[in-house]
Amino acid sequence: MAEAHQAVGFQFTVRPDGVDLKLSQEVIKNIYLSGVTAWKKRAIQFKNGVLAGVYPASPSSWLIVVIAMMSSLYIHVDPSLGMINAIKDNLPCRDYMSVQTRAVLSAILFATGLWLFLIYLLRYTLKALLSYHEWIFESHGKMSSSTKVWLSLVKMFSGRRPLLYSFQASLPRLPVPSVDDTIHRYLESVRPLLDSQQYNQMEVLASEFKASMATQLQRYLILKSWWATNYVSDWWEEYIYLRGRTPIMVNSNFYIMVRQIVSTLGTVPMCSTQMERMFNTTRIPGIETDIVQHLTDRKHLVVYHRGRFFHVWLYTGGRHLLPSELETQFQRILNDTSEPQPGELKLAALTAGNRYALGVNKVSLDAIESAAFFLALDDEPQGYEPAKTNSLDSYAKSLLHGKCYDRWFDKSFTLISYPNGKMGVNVEHSWADAPIVGHMWEYVAATDCFHLGYTEEGHCKGDVNKGLPYPTRLQWQIPKECQDVIEASYLSAKQIADDVDFHGYLFNEFGKGLIKKCRTSPDAFIQLALQLAQFRDQGVFCLTYESSMTRMFRDGRTETVRSCTSEAVEFVRAMEDASATNAQRFALFRKAADKHQNMYRLAMTGSGIDRHLFCLYIVSKYLGVDSPFLKKVLSEPWKLSTSQTPQQQLNLVDINKFPKYVSAGGGFGPVADDGYGVSYIIIGENLITFHISSKFSSPDTDSYRFGQNIRKAMIDIQALFKTENDKKIVENAKRVPLENGKKYI
């Protein structure tokens, strides 16, 4: 067999006159090339480490400073104000050096010290500049003079050609808000959700908390904010994700159909820490807590197909496999007719149910956990088909949970490929948030379609190395008792998956283009539509979660925007009140939209509510003190959990020319048993896709019904902007003041 010959590195036979040793030149060549590649990688990593370490300066700038100092010696000018002479007089072993050697060495040492000082000065200057966030609170399309000056300074101090991690040391730390501000914003956020008695009780709890332990807890947080790079992220990863003992499938993992990324001014750098663990990363289950295991320089992936696990090398001859060679390897797997080993078919269900410490076949298990990522080759086609009812629903459920045993939910991500060419990813959440994987996937999809390309027959371009070693089956010996555990985990996971009521809805009545013409934020528009849809669906308002990012800070992850504001409630009630006029509704919409935008900006700039309260709660637990206020806050259910998946790398794909390459975004499972999870993506100018999830077991929710309520809410709000008297409505809204004690204008 061809693979057997390729696996042999050398051959020998024993003869009467000794050992006849025959080395395989092909294998020796590959070993040599692999070694060269490894050393090249080390050299590149060292180079990038140096470049990022001295940024925003460059290594060549050191030489310039040294030459300047050396030149000063010859013109008898001392820019060091005597420091070079002081260094020269205190050099060790100076008796063994000539005067000229000591002078040159002293100048080099001083120049190096000056160069390092200038690097830190530039770095802290840039950090101070990046701590300015007033630009984000300015109206869209308008930029103040101070922001223009700030933007110019950021560009000037940012250097040229930064690498991925160049700005890490220059990013500011996430600030700790004051306790008074956080509690004030919290009480403001729950006011529309509580009656007078409930709100007064919450005020009492908050006052008792401020008067008793708040100051002590805050001191510890401030200390941590100066000692650690981020006072939230490590505790968030550990306590929200890794210590959870419930299944991560549906409850934590999310899926992405193609692309998403967070946008900023384009000049403001974002933290790249999460990208470090994109590949070669696995969540390893433990008894009380899991760990995130990240390895380096792994050269294989593991492929799952029809119940079998295959080990596939990603390198040959010291280089990556070409796309045509990867196609060959995957086709070999598809052509393999072998059957799964006992217990192998549903083995991955152990990552879908309750958290188990896996103890099966260490070698094969290590191959999965150390792989670059996990690839699932599915048999059933998926994807959005306009003529096929519920095709998007099926696509999303396949990405979110599949068959409960055909994704390795503990891997950083599982890449899923369908026989009709559609793809997607299922992502483990602890190591990173959606924009990180979305950024990668957006780049991969655009590169595959527009740079690598395919032949007319649909094959990858390029020649194929016929001598590639075949993919190898992972071997398993799974005892009966372990197979019983696998089956139990599968049944538990299947119960969760079967309970997911998912509806994907493509809203194409209008999109970002029309919303922006109305001079309002698309996100605020949609969030208010979700509030209106929620009230029409449930008859009550609820605590609403919208995810925001904090990656403008070092090691930043997410923050919560509490979208159900008093202003949003007033607007929704006006929409449902037949006696309210369009002018009143329009004015209340503007007020609610402005409030939402301001809250989103506060969350992005480190003045959110929930992460601060979460960390105060963690400190209280470490100190062994009980806070009824914090306990109450942390136990409140998010019945409506929402997230936008914005697009940024539009330069990669012209969606007007290539609309079929536009993705429907991604989504997640419901957070509350009786609530909704809603993810949405604004695609181009005329399309918004909603991913809606809930549970069949809840008699109060219905994902399809909620999608229809969203549609009606979007159209009803848009109607406020297109009435015949729309100009008069706008002018009246600006002139008519709100009266005390009145609900409307």
UniProtKB/TrEMBL annotation:
Q: Please give the InterPro entries that the UniProt record associates with this protein.
A: Carn_acyl_trans (IPR000542), Carn_acyl_trans_N (IPR042572), CAT-like_dom_sf (IPR023213), Cho/carn_acyl_trans (IPR039551), Cho/carn_acyl_trans_2 (IPR042231), CPT_N (IPR032476)
Membrane topology term reads: Multi-pass membrane protein
| Pathways per UniProt | Lipid metabolism; fatty acid beta-oxidation
Pfam families attached to this UniProt entry:
Carn_acyltransf (PF00755), CPT_N (PF16484)
Transmembrane segment boundaries: 50-75, 103-122
**Mind telling me which GO cellular component terms the entry cites?**
mitochondrial outer membrane
Q: What does this protein do?
A: Catalyzes the transfer of the acyl group of long-chain fatty acid-CoA conjugates onto carnitine, an essential step for the mitochondrial uptake of long-chain fatty acids and their subsequent beta-oxidation in the mitochondrion.
Q: Which residues form the active site?
A: H429 (proton acceptor)
Q: What is its main location?
A: mitochondrion
* Top-level taxon of the source organism: Eukaryota
Q: Which transformation does this protein catalyse, written as a reaction?
A: 4,8-dimethylnonanoyl-CoA + (R)-carnitine = O-4,8-dimethylnonanoyl-(R)-carnitine + CoA; (R)-carnitine + hexadecanoyl-CoA = O-hexadecanoyl-(R)-carnitine + CoA
Q: Which residues form the Choline/carnitine acyltransferase domain?
A: 174-259, 267-711
Q: Which UniProt keywords apply?
A: Acyltransferase, Fatty acid metabolism, Lipid metabolism, Membrane, Mitochondrion, Mitochondrion outer membrane, Transferase, Transmembrane, Transmembrane helix, Transport
Q: Which organism is it from?
A: Amphiprion ocellaris
Q: Where is the Carnitine O-palmitoyltransferase N-terminal domain?
A: 1-47
Q: How is this protein named in the record? A: Carnitine O-palmitoyltransferase 1, muscle isoform
ATP-binding found in the keyword field: no
Where does it localize? Mitochondrion outer membrane
Q: Name one GO biological process term.
A: long-chain fatty acid transport
Q: Which EC number(s) does UniProt give?
A: 2.3.1.21
Q: Say yes or no: keyword Transport present.
A: yes
UniProt GO molecular function: carnitine O-palmitoyltransferase activity
The Swiss-Prot or TrEMBL record describes its family as follows: Belongs to the carnitine/choline acetyltransferase family.
